[in-house]
Amino acid sequence: MLVQNDFPLAPLTTFQLGGEAKYLIVIKTTEDLSRALDFCKKENQPFFILGGGSNTVFRDSGFPGVVLQMLIPGIRCMDTNDDHTIFQVGAGVPWDQFVEYTVKQGLAGIECLSGIPGSVGASPIQNIGAYGQEVKDSILKVECMNPAGEIINLSNENCKFKYRNSEFKSGIYKDWIVVSVTFQLSKVNPPCLRYPEVKKVWENYHTNESIISKQETTNFDSRVKEMETLRNLVIQLRKKKSMVLDLADPNTRSAGSFFTNPILSDQETERFIETAKKHGFQNPPVYPESQGFKKISAAWLIENSGIQKGTKYPGGVGISENHCLGLINIAGTTTALLEMAESVRQTVFDKFFVRLEMEPVVRP
After folding, report:
1. What is the DSSP string of 118-157?
2. Backbone φ and ψ of 156, nearest 5°
3. Which of 20, 111, 134, 164 is catalytic?
4. CA dihedral for 115, 308, 330, 53, sign (positive or negative)
5. Active-site annotation holder among 123, 257, 305, 320
6. Which of 12, 10, 262 has the alpha carbon at shortest distance from 119?
7. Segment 3-57, tens digit of pLDDT
8. Is 253 considered catalytic here?
9. I want to staple 67 with a disulfide (CB 3.0 to 4.6 A). Which of 21, 169, 197, 347 is the partner?
10. pLDDT exceeding 90 applies to what percent of the chain?
């Protein structure tokens, strides 16, 4: 087991921010993980699990313990029939690599999650979602290592998935480490067109050209072509918002959406609507979430509180030129980033009395 001292963390995150880790250990197997946890106990060091670094903010002072970089590989087909295919996927597999792999097999379930950065192991922790899909709807089980070093399999029900949340993020499994995730994906479900923006670009594409070649194709070929087309359209949408990592685009030096969409009770929603109307917004966007709760667009709140895309803040940070949910590092520090985030939150609260919650994890 290689233990690296004083390891720079900024290159391991999409923000390109943060100081050094006291130690860094790369994890490629469950045996590596077990040995690394033993090292942490022996040295009495705190540890932090790092995946793709797309949802993590390290402070300028770094991390005063052991960063365990999860790179466990592997995409293994566990079962397949006429209806679905089941895969067990290592926690270290890049998320979009797995999505692309499944789309090329004509499988539905995570196609609208194309282009999302990060690793497979992080996907169940915050129940990643976009464009009408959430990963919880395709997860069968999550393989974890508990604090005692035991491998435990948790069912979908055990994880208690919610909007951008799970028992791993804020519940009883916060100290458990995801080793692999098992997914069930459909061979028969149509491409997901629940989200209006996706449905619109899909229909426009069909209007302009046929997605199926005039050459003779099998049903499988046609299905794969459909899934690949939807994936490409989703990635194009994300690129327009600088939500796909691109070294040539400084607006992608971010964590994607920095804030989650607020979930309000019916009473809180009524207060929000009344407040919005006082500011001249007669029909503010409100979406159903679950019984007794509604969802409000964080992007709408930010834009209509007076914060514009491309706004620069002190300390070398700012708002993405292409999406107001993208808080970006231009040439700044974590301190400046977090001060900007709090400023945005306060501005929104002062106008709409709605408190935004950060999506990335901030490590001490």
Report:
1. SBGGGTTTTT-EETTEEGGGTEEEEEEE-TTS-EEEEEHH
2. -55, -40
3. 164
4. negative
5. 257
6. 12
7. 999 999 999 999 999 999 999 999 999 999 999 999 999 999 999 999 999 999 9
8. no
9. 21
10. 93
